[in-house]
Design goal:
This protein is an alpha/beta fold. The chain has a single domain, classed as TIM Barrel (Alpha-Beta Barrel). Helices cover 37% and strands 16% of the residues. The protein has 12 helices and 11 strands. The protein has helices spanning 38-50, 69-79, 96-104, 119-126, 131-144, 164-173, 189-193, 195-198, 202-218, 242-249, 264-272, 293-299; strands spanning 7-13, 55-59, 83-88, 109-113, 150-156, 179-183, 225-227, 250-255, 260-261, 273-274, 291-292. The chain has a 9-stranded mixed beta sheet with strand order 7-6-5-4-3-2-1-8-9, with helices on both faces. The protein has a two-stranded antiparallel ribbon with strand order 10-11. The longest helix has 17 residues, at 202-218. The protein is globular. The protein starts with 6 loop residues before the first strand and ends in a 9-residue tail after the last helix. Bound molecules: iron/sulfur cluster (SF4). Iron/sulfur cluster binds next to loops.
Amino acid sequence: MTTEKKMLKVVLFTGYACNNNCAFCIDADKRAIPEKTTAELLKEVVKARSKGAYVLEIIGGEATIRPDFNRVVGAAKRLGIPQVTCATNGRVFADPAAAKKIVASGIDALIFSVHGPDAATHDELTCAPGSFAQLKKGLRNLRALGFERISGNTTVVKPNLAALPRLAEFYIKNRISNVEYIFVDPNYGGARNHFKELVPRISKAAPQMRKALKLGRAAGMDQWKVRYVPLCHFKDCLDQISETNERELFLTEHWAPDFRNTDAIGSRAAVGRRKTARCRGCRLFSACEGLWVEYLKNYGDAELKAVK
Ligand code: SF4
């Protein structure tokens, strides 16, 4: 716990190597940066523990493809970090032996990145043929091992917008009760490089995202959320905004090979996203982070409407 009584969450980046090659990946231009060594990661795990981290989220690239992944998770659990989680593309879990070893490492929860309800949509975005089939097999293998703490995240981009309701059905069918629909970040990487092909207008994306949330609520999934969105497009589901929850509960640090950010939530709001003159007088102003800076540069702010 921190002095502010918020929980400390350390997001431990292992490096940017990945067995997928997602078109929108924020790290698309960082693949050549060297991976952290095992010794570095183990040292950082000890540091996270001594700082009082409640959550250690291990991410890449794709952290599960590293041969030392289980060792790092095991070290974190032995040191007593309460929640050790990993955001993954899920492919490694298609191998039952690998799935078994990762579960045995003591990992508390897994966040599967699913970008479409079918192979055509998902694999087109991951640029990795067969990745959807492996992800599905991975889910089945984990369930067969009795591992239930699986959540989902989806990056919302132009090519999967129409498929979001079907993706919601996929999550419901697979009993994924925590899902985040994440409006793509175009400030860096793939989405910045291919803005026009990938970044939807928020006025087009929001109705589809709200539809997915509604399907979830109807199926009893009231913990599904949306992330990185201007609140004026989500007035009917303000209790399903990730950032609101996150700001109340966590102080988040990012420890990456090429940067360290000791207030990831604050700097995103201060630097990465922006509100505009159109927000003047909006009653949601203090709760809202506005739109991505790069989005505003490309599309402007005409879609924002102050909530009175
Ligand atoms: S008008 Fe601006 S402050 Fe208000 S909800 Fe929209 S983006 Fe947020």
